[in-house]
């Protein structure tokens, strides 16, 4: 078992986990920063986790929930404080309400994840510091120690099963629930390069110009929160085009952006009155490149299925392949 010890210190108000893994620091680091991977071991065996946001950048947030065997969900969040690549990261860890907002009635802790190389692997140290002895005792009474052992017992198998994750450059669409789709693509390029390619008008025109026989005719990007954008495509034969419009809701420069999205035109594809979505775009540096994660939240299952039926994931893959060719 990877966990070597879990130490509670009532004097320093800390709970410290020591664990060792037979993989490189880079491999273990990527497992924690990739939402597709961390959710396979963050929750105890009987309470699998789902991450709907995972910024992995100072000032950003992570939102997740664990689901019990009976289907009940328990929500939590991280507020990212500091990240030093492949050395350590620090977050404020707390419980959340069902809407993702912090639950002020339950304790928070300051978690520091430290990654140290060993001759044949990596030592991981996770230190949680609590505000009071009462908070520390409360989380222990809630099963924190046993839950941590259960969760970490899954990491080794995850690292084996997902050994080639860093080499998977295909676009992957996952159904998280009836209204949410998570689309992931590892792009060969630095985080700043990939961020710029999504926010520079001339660069966007070079890789998001649509399928063969189409061209992008409008590319009006938003600069700040509350501003609007409009992207429009038209066929070369002069037929009717379509586009997407929306507003920026939140932005962590260089790492995260949330926006609304509404289909304009396109009635031939989806019919009239198609509801919009909220898109959350995250850029994460990994050893293989930059992981671009898009979480799309639709109004209902019908809207989700209608958009997927258009070949959305295939279209995104074609665009990302073009993007890599210009970086």
Question: Which descriptors apply to this entry?
Answer:
single chain, Alpha-D-Glucose-1,6-Bisphosphate, Chain A, domain 4, 10 helices
How would you describe this structure to a colleague?
There is one protein chain. The chain has helices spanning 25-33, 35-38, 133-141, 144-152, 155-161, 191-199, 201-207, 267-270, 301-308, 312-326; strands spanning 3-9, 14-21, 49-54, 61-67, 73-84, 88-96, 108-118, 121-130, 172-175, 180-187, 214-220, 228-235, 242-252, 256-265, 277-286, 289-298. The chain is α+β, with helices and mostly antiparallel strands and 327 residues long. It has two domains: 3-165, Alpha-D-Glucose-1,6-Bisphosphate, Chain A, domain 4; 172-326, START domain (Alpha-D-Glucose-1,6-Bisphosphate, Chain A, domain 4, 2-Layer Sandwich), CATH 3.30.530. The strands form two sheets. Strands 1-2-8-7-6-5-4-3 form an eight-stranded antiparallel sheet. A hairpin with a 6-residue loop joins strand 12 and strand 13 (242-252).
Distance between the termini: 42 Å
Mean of pLDDT: 91
Strand content: 35-45%
- Summed up, the helix count is 10
CATH architecture of the largest domain: 2-Layer Sandwich
Helix- and strand-based class? Answer: alpha+beta
What is the molecular shape?
Answer: elongated
The total number of structural domains is 2
Indicate the CATH topology of the largest domain: Alpha-D-Glucose-1,6-Bisphosphate, Chain A, domain 4
Summarize the amount of helix as a percent range.
10-25%
Q: Count the E strands.
A: 16
Instruction: Show unreliable segments.
Output: none
Strand arrangement across the biggest beta sheet: 1-2-8-7-6-5-4-3
Kindly provide the name of the CATH class of the largest domain: Alpha Beta
């Amino acid at each position: 078992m990877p966990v070597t010890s879990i130490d509670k210190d009532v004097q320093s108000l800390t709970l410290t986990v020591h664990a060792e893994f037979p993989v490189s620091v880079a491999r273990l680091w990527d497992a924690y920063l990739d939402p597709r991977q961390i959710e396979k071991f963050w929750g105890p065996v009987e309470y699998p986790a789902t991450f709907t946001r995972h910024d992995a950048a100072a000032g950003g947030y992570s939102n997740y929930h664990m689901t019990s065997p009976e289907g009940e969900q328990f929500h939590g969040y991280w507020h990212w404080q500091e990240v030093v690549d492949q050395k350590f990261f620090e977050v404020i860890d707390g419980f959340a309400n069902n809407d993702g907002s912090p639950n002020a009635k339950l304790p928070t802790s300051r978690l520091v994840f430290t990654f140290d190389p060993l001759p044949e692997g990596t030592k991981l140290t996770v230190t949680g510091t609590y505000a009071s002895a009462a908070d520390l005792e409360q989380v222990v009474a809630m099963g924190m120690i046993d839950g941590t052992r259960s969760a970490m017992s899954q990491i080794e198998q995850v690292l084996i099963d997902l050994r080639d994750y860093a080499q998977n450059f295909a676009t992957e669409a996952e159904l998280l629930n009836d209204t949410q789709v998570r689309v992931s693509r590892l792009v060969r390029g630095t985080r700043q390069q990939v961020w710029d390619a999504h926010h520079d008008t001339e660069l966007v025109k070079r890789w998001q110009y649509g399928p063969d026989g189409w061209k992008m005719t409008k590319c009006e990007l938003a600069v700040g929160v509350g501003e609007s954008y409009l992207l429009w495509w038209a066929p070369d034969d002069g037929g009717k085009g379509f586009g997407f419009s929306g507003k920026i809701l939140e932005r962590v420069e260089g790492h995260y952006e949330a926006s609304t999205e509404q289909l304009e035109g396109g009635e031939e594809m989806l019919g009239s009155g198609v509801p919009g979505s909220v898109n959350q775009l995250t850029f994460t540096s990994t050893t293989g490149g930059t992981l671009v994660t898009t979480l799309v939240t639709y109004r209902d299952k019908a809207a989700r299925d209608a958009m997927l039926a258009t070949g959305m994931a295939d279209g995104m893959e074609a665009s990302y392949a073009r993007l890599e060719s210009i970086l």
